[in-house]
Design goal:
InterPro entries: Emycin_Estase (IPR007815), Emycin_Estase_proteobac (IPR016273), Hydrolase/PRTase-associated (IPR052036)
Distance between the termini: 41 Å
Structural class: alpha/beta
Shape: globular
Number of strands: 13
Radius of gyration: 22 Å
Protein name: Erythromycin esterase family protein
Number of helices: 18
Length: about 425
């Protein structure tokens, strides 16, 4: 069968709504991205996904699209799948604090999900820009690996504002130190080995802190200021959601988990995006970088079981058409499968896995059947024209597939013909 002959009815429709892209180089001219304007419209939040972390082509594409959205469309914030608490010193660096060489030290303990180069671009851009681009973290601390990045600054806050309550957060820190890791992949198994009394004590302390923060808001603000209070409260909320996540993951692996119980992290990330959107002020437009499975607007299910309500679903519910989800995927090449390994640096090993030919029914098969290479498609127009709601019912997630109605899950998609695993990833 000729390569140009579609093997599924969606290929022709996809071809009609796709445009070729010329460059992967983030520094290349941006004219080929102009059709993106029609996809994003008046959106206040545009999410840029990827079907796997640690992929060179996705990192390059997201950096190009960030440039386009900032330089040509007036976007003012890069929000990243990175700790809310840890994001503040990175924003300070992006605004010119410290030296250019400081960034490596600030990111030394973080999973290398591609935040470094966008930050370097923002710092260079801000050196001459009339309107600076800000950086914002949205995630629970250390990708769920440790409560310490959130609780340690809360202790500093309470030391000034409410010394009476300081012993509570210090007790929480002591327990959190006993299982802290670089990601949830290492921390969650360590958490399960804690005595039940320690697990319960940590949850109880965090909930008491959260309720106290809310109950004495007027007192805390009078002793300090509104912004410091709101950041400290959001950090406590991060710790609570991460702590809930440990219990949810334990239940999931034990086969006793509640339906969609791992949604705690995603609802926190969605709340963080809205938190930043409000506090950066009128006219704020956010570029949001996260995994496809976090930005999609439809629920996440595996083997027919609902496992999570993603960040994108929450944001779509709150922002409607002011939220746009742009997925990134690939037809061939290799992907980075993450395999749990407590002895690995981040709690997981990265397997450089060769991709099998796209499954029929997938968006990747539609791109292949349509003969499209590096290209971008407006899925909203395709959605409006698809007969009977027909469209791809799956999209790659690493070397597997996530089954979901793709035309409902995303507003646009960028396809690269080949993906390669970054060569500087440490196991």
């Amino acid at each position: 069968m000729p390569a140009s002959t579609p093997r599924n009815p969606f290929a022709d429709l996809l071809r009609a709504h796709a445009v070729p892209l010329t460059h992967l180089d983030p520094a290349a001219p941006l004219d080929d991205l102009e059709p993106l304007r029609d996809i994003i419209g008046y959106a206040r939040v545009v999410a840029l996904g990827e079907n796997s972390h640690f992929i060179t082509e996705f990192s390059l594409l997201r950096r190009r699209i960030l440039r386009f959205l900032a330089e040509r469309c007036g976007f003012t914030v890069l929000a990243f799948e990175y700790g809310f608490s840890e994001g503040f010193p990175l924003d300070a660096w992006a605004q010119g604090q410290g030296t250019d060489d400081d960034l490596d030290a600030r990111l030394a303990a973080a999973i290398p999900v591609g935040v470094a180069e966008p930050l370097r671009w923002i710092r260079r851009h801000n050196a001459t820009a009339e309107v600076p681009v800000r950086f914002a973290g949205i995630d629970v601390p250390a990708a769920g690996g440790s409560l310490l990045p959130a609780l340690t600054p809360v202790a500093d806050y309470l030391r000034r504002i409410d010394p009476e309550t300081l012993p509570l957060v210090q007790q929480a820190i002591r327990i959190a130190e006993s299982f802290a890791g670089a990601s949830a992949a290492s921390a969650a198994p360590a958490w399960t080995r804690l005595a039940a009394a320690e697990q319960d004590a940590l949850s109880a302390i965090l909930m008491r802190l959260l309720i106290r923060f809310r109950a004495v808001e007027v007192l805390y603000v009078s002793r300090g200021d509104r912004r410091s209070y709101e950041i400290a409260l959001r950090r406590i909320e991060a710790a609570c959601h991460a702590d809930y996540g440990f219990r949810a993951m334990a239940g999931l692996y034990a086969g006793t988990g509640l339906t969609a119980d791992t949604s705690a992290r995603d609802v926190y990330m969605a709340g963080s995006v809205l938190w930043h959107l409000e506090r950066f002020g009128p006219g704020t437009r956010i570029v949001l970088a996260a995994h496809n499975a976090h930005i999609q607007k439809t629920p996440v299910s595996f083997d027919g079981h609902l496992t999570g309500l993603p960040m994108g679903q929450h944001l779509h519910r709150c922002l409607a058409d002011e939220y746009v989800a742009l997925a990134l995927t690939s037809i061939t090449g290799h992907t980075a499968d993450m395999r749990p390994d407590e002895d690995a640096r981040f709690g997981f090993a990265i397997d450089n896995t060769k991709l099998e030919p796209p499954e029929q029914g997938s968006i990747e098969a539609a791109f292949a059947d349509a003969g499209l290479g590096l290209s971008m498609a407006d899925l909203r127009r395709a959605r409006a024209e698809a007969s009977g709601g027909a469209g791809p019912d799956r999209i790659r997630i690493q070397s597997a597939y996530l089954h979901t109605p793709v035309l409902d899950a995303f507003d646009g998609i960028v396809n690269t013909p080949v993906s390669t695993v970054a060569g500087d990833i440490e196991n």
